[in-house]
Every structure is written in C-alpha cells, then in structure tokens.
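Input for the complex:
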Amino acid sequence: MEHITLLLGIVIVTALVFDFTNGFHDTANAMATTISTGALKPKTAVAMSAVLNLVGAFLSVEVAKTISGGIINEDGLKTEVIFAALVGAILWNLLTWLLGLPSSSSHALFGGLIGAAVMSMGWSSVNGGTVVTKVLLPAVAAPLVAGIAATLATRLTYRISSRTDEKATSKGYRAGQIASAGLVSLAHGTNDAQKTMGIITLALITGGVLNPGANPPMWVIVSAGVAIALGTYLGGWRIIRTMGKGLTELAPPQGFAAQTSAATAILASSHIGFSLSTTQVCSGAVMGAGLGRKGGVVRWSTATRMFVAWGLTLPAAGLVGAGAELLTKQGTWGIATTAALLVGGSALIWSLSRRQPVDHTNVTADEIGTPGAGTAEPAGVVTTAIAAVTPPPAGPVTTGTGTSAVEGAAPAPSVADSARPATV
Amino acid sequence: MKIDWAALGSVFGVSLVVTVALVGLFTLGIVGLSKHEQARAAGGGTAAIPARLGAYACFALCAAAVAYGISLIVV
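Predicted:
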C-alpha cells in the first residue's frame, strides 16, 4: 500500500512536470508572432498567455476520459506505464526545446505511451489505425490547412490595404493579432490542461484512490492549471524565436493573418472533431503567412529541421518511454532509477541550454551569441546559481523518493527567475 | 482503419473560408478607419462618416466571430 501511494505521488508530480513543459513548449504557438511583430512586449505576451491558459483550465468541465484517445488499449494500464510514458514525453519536450524546434507535446505524450505500453503489454496494445488517423495524417494536414488559409489571407489583406499608409494600419493589425493570440491561448489551456487532469485522474483511479468514473478533485484542476500557466509564463523563448523569427520574417499584417488562421483552424478542428496539433497548425500558419507576402521568404532549412523533429517525435519519445518502462518493470529500484535519470537528463539539457541562453531580452534580436557585457554578467550569475543548485537533486535522487523528483524539477524555474533581475 | 475524410475536408473548408473572411473584414475595418482619419485631416467632414460606420460594422462582425470562438471553447 505504501508503495502504491509513493508511486502515485511520483506519477502525479511527473504529470504536473509534463504539464509545465507543455506550457513553456507551447507558449510559442500563441505568442511567437505577437512578440516578433512587436504587438506585445515579450514579458507582457507570456503573462497574458499564462493568465488565459489558467482561465482556460477552469473553463471546460469536459475532462479527457482517455489519455491517448484510443491509440493504446488503456484497460489494465498500470501506473508505472503512465510514469514511463511521461518520462519519454518530458525528455523529448526538453530536447526539442533545447534545439528550439516547435513540436507537438501531445504527440510526444502519445509516443511515450506507445513505447511504454508496447514494452509492458506487447504490440497488440497499440491501435495502429488510430496512430495513422490521430497522429500521422493530422501532422501532414495541419500545416497545409493553416498554411494555405494564412497564405490566402495574407495576400488578401495586402491587396485591400495596399493604398493605405502602413503606419496607420499596423496598430490595427496588432490589436487584431492580440485577440487571435488570446483565443489560441485560451483554447490551449482548455485542451492541454484537461489532458493532464485526465492523466492524474486516471492514475488516481488505477491507484484505487478515486472510484472509476469520478470527476477530478478540485486540487487536480487547480494544480494542472497552475502548472501549465507557470510553464507558459516562463516562456519557451528558444521556440518562440524559431517560430517568430527563424521560419520567416513577419510584418504586422502577416502576423495578424497567421494568428487568425491558426486560431480558426484550431477551433474548427476541435469543434468538428478532426483534432489537429496546435503546434503544427501554428507553424504552418507562420510559414503560410511568410509565403503570402510578395518577396516573402521561408527558411526551408529551419522548416526541414522542424519537420524532421515532427517525424521523430513519436519514435523518439516511444523509445525513451519503452526504456523507462523496462526499468520501472524491475520494481522499486527501477522506478527510482527512472526518476533519477529523468531529473538528471532534465538538468543536463537545462545546463546545456545555458551555453547560449535565449530569453525575453534577446528573443527578437537578429543575432544571438554576440559577446557583450549585458550577456556575460547574467551568465556568471546563472553558473553560480547552477553550482549552488545542482548537487542537492543529484544526491537524494539515487535513494529514489517522490520528494526528490519535486526537488529536481524545481531548480530550473527558480534559477531562471533568480537570474532575471540581473538580465533586466 | 477509417479515415474521416469528410471531417478533414470540412476543417479545411471552414478554416479557409472563415480565416479569409475575417482577415478581409478586419482589413476593411482598418482601411476604413485610416480613410476616416485622412479625410478628417484633410478637412472634409461629410465623407468621413460612412467610412467610419463601415469600419465599426466590420469590427463588430469580427468581435462577434471572436465571441463565437470563445463560446466554442467554453461549451
């Protein structure tokens, strides 16, 4: 009994960590173009997105009844499998964040689940047809749907406004863009925070804490909403940079067209029932808007890297999930080792990211990595902060407790926060 | 394996039509307002009013679309 509660605690914490990475991975979807066209200041944009994500978490009562939407057979799904899946999804989210590549958090979760389920129950637990219809086909359709709509909308808006003064109209475009970005944030909070609530609720049911079919308790709703909002506020600046500047250069009319097409495609897909990944819709919309302007350029090398990341999401998260499940199957020490590896891997990725930090100060800069007094000083602060923070999680984690996972997950945000005053 | 082409098709069609219509409307609104300001700056009082009313009508339609979007999220 003791064992079950501990494992359950670890799964709940890991689910919240995934929710958190989901938030900062997907800030870019709503806010990348808003920041790069200058409609909102970077900090204002992430704050607005965080608040709307939090509100979104409370808006809908329709909590996801399944984690995977039928991709794997969830009958008799063990708590360890959920844990292993979350490990795979979190590590893939962090890795793509390090590389600044927008990739779908839900697909990472699906990948982790598939890997862990196959390792636990064999290939028969995976529903191959649903993988095609829920993951592969949407991955092709999403950028096309949003991209074509954004291209046409960009052309139209340039044609209509061609005789008017650019300065007079850009203010209006920015206001429109903020409204569309707000809708994307709200929809994201509703969908993705619900997903985490679904995971925690399912874990509580499998652990025997809740009765089957029970609604999530209030603390689950609140913690999931807060985790996603915190992640959003922290801001995945690397991905924001790729989406806002890396794929193409956006002027206010393009930013407006891109964001509107993204918001429309997301709402249409979730309402009609052919669910598309928010990340892939938004990336497609940005590229479409880039192509829609005369002389607009899409950087296909960046886009190709992004497409490759989309293709790798499922297998890579699946492999990590399978490996994690192989370990957790070994019993308590295996679960402890997996938790330790998750914390260690996250810490490693995070420390690598500090070599070339991207934050709200340089997110729209043309060049990153130019040495200067401004960048050198916070780096020093951060390295000392890492030195101060890193040892503790490495020590107790090997003994493998639920609390060590919390400690290990916490340093990243807190260090970034402590570095902030120095950067501003 | 059954692919729901009808759903995919309607997502595609709805996204395309609604996006283009909204962006078009909003742009008309912006252009209308800037025309209004130009006219006012030039001193012509009467020509400004229809442009301004049209702009407000466009913005109202866009606001209605946003409200419908929020209602889709909530319900």
